[in-house]
Design a protein that fits this description.
elongated; 175 residues; mainly alpha; single chain
């Protein structure tokens, strides 16, 4: 008897993304409005880094399930590069503040956070491509519910699995 495959990476990535977006927004919009803002943003970046570690570890577990010849491998490597860039940018921004977390973020730290946000958007887009275009982390079509099939089209005899591509929908066309 095999245990069910539980995919933890997708739900975990939302936490560092949310923390980092909020931290960057506060640093750019309210850098000097309150004495608490720098402490809050420092804490948010730190929490994002902790969540990022969990997302990275679960992402590597999920990525290791793909064979070396899987057509999604190149997209996976680009996704990893984007996520690593985001993590690195926020880690540097965090390190710049370690000596004085109660001070407003420097311009360099805010620029690093912005670079990190751009990288996380790119990584997230590639993560979506892995799931929706390549089916990574999804159950084979034979075990999907009828509602899921109705939303994404019929399997039309496909064997399902991670290498099956989902049909693309034109703009404005209902799913």
């Amino acid at each position: 008897m095999t245990s069910p495959h539980v995919v933890l990476h997708p739900p975990l990535v939302h936490f560092p993304i949310a923390f980092w977006i909020l931290a960057a927004a506060l640093d750019w919009v309210l850098p000097f409005q309150s004495f608490l803002t720098p402490v809050v943003t420092f804490t948010l970046v730190g929490l994002g880094l902790l969540g990022g570690i969990a997302a990275i570890l679960t992402g590597f577990v999920e990525g290791s399930r793909l064979s070396e010849r899987h057509p999604a491998r190149r997209t996976l490597y680009a996704h990893i590069a984007g996520a690593a860039s985001a993590f690195g940018a926020f880690a540097l921004a965090f390190a710049l503040r370690l000596g004085a977390p109660e001070e407003a973020a420097s311009l360099i730290a805010r620029i690093l956070e912005t670079v990190g946000l751009i990288a996380i958007v790119a990584a997230g887009s590639l993560g979506g491509k892995l799931v929706y275009d390549f089916g990574v982390g999804r159950r084979p079509s034979s075990s999907r519910s009828r509602n899921d099939e109705g939303r994404h089209g019929s399997s039309s005899g496909s064997s399902g699995g991670a290498s099956r591509e989902e049909p693309r929908h034109a703009k404005g066309e209902p799913r």
